[in-house]
Amino acid sequence: MKLSPRDAPGYFARPDPDRTGLLIYGNDGMRVALKRQEVIANLVGPEGEAEMRLSRIPGSNLRKEPGLLNDAVKAIGFFPGPRVAFVEDANDTAAPAVVAALEDWTPGDAQIVVTAGALKATSKLRKAFEAHNNAYAVAIYDDPPSRGEIEADLKRAGLSIGQDAMEDITNLSRALDPGDFRQTLEKLALYKHGNSTPVSPEDVAAVAPLSTEAELDDVLTIVAEFAHA
Description:
The chain is of the alpha/beta class and 229 residues long. Helix content is 50%, strand content 12%.
C-alpha cells in the first residue's frame, strides 16, 4: 500500500508493529535515513538494538545471499518485543530476496524495513510494497520539514518554544540540510538542559551554525541598504 506524504509523519511517530514491512525511498539519502531512524526507534524502542531485536543487512548483500533477509525475519530473539529486519540502500537487485521475505512473512516475524534511493513506478521493489495488503511504501521528497514535523521534533527533545523562536527554527529548517538541522535541534536541547523556560530567538541564535548566521546577516545588511537607498 502507498503511504501518503501527509500521513507519513504520523505513522513514523506511531508505527504499527503488526505490519509486514515498510519501504522508505527518495532522492535525498539523509532525509530517508532520518525517517528510517525514527520509525525503527519507535518500533523496537531505545533498547531494541542492544537487545538484538534489530538486524541490519546491506542491500548489496542480498544479490549473492538472498536468504539473509528471510533468516533475519524468522530468527527468534532472546528478548521479548517487536523485531525489525532492516535492509539498507536496496535497489531492484535486492527485489527477489525482499519479495520472497514479504511473501513468507507471518505474524510474529520481524518487520521488514527497507530504504532505497529514488525508485521509478516500474521498480520491482516499489511494486512489491505498494501491492502488499499489509506493508507500506512511502516516498520522501526534498521539501523542508513541515511545521508539524518541526513541532514533533521539538517535543521529542523536551523543548517548549515561543512564536518568534518558532519562526527562526522554521527558517533554519529551510536553510540547513536535514542532518545539520537535526544536529542543531540536539544542540538546542543540550543548551536548554535544566532550563524550563521557552526557547527564545536568542537561544536559537546561540546554537545556529555560524555559516547560516553569516548568510542571514548578509541578507539583513542588503535589505537595510536597500531600504535606505
